[in-house]
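User: Please go through the entry that follows and flag anything odd:
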Amino acid sequence: MTADRNHRDIRVTSWSELNEALYEDAWKPELSRFRSDFAFRGLSNANADLSTSLSRLGGDSSSIEGHLLRNFRKYAQMRGAVDDSAWHWLALGQHHGLPTRLLDWTYSPFVALHFVTNNLATYDHDGVI
């Protein structure tokens, strides 16, 4: 796990160490709950950078994105949604694996952990939150 607290890496080897690291300083007495001040992103490869799936395609991202989004909209079903904005389609496309300029973040460290562990092919690599 990599934390941006003073730019230090924290390596954990057990579930309890992971929980302690993820929830360090997260107790909010006014809520009587743990609530982290951080947003989390989970990657199955600790050496990966924070580039978007669209930029990893290479080439001119701005010219590629329009074509990808137009084709996605053409073949996707609207299913009662009333929002026809580009942001809606980008988020929907991202959810379905379309390369976009968006990066997924979450306030839940366990959701981030899901993305660290959901790819069986990378179980022999260190992941990162």
Notes: The first strand starts at residue 2 and ends at 3. Strands lie at 2-3, 8-9, 27-28, 33-34.
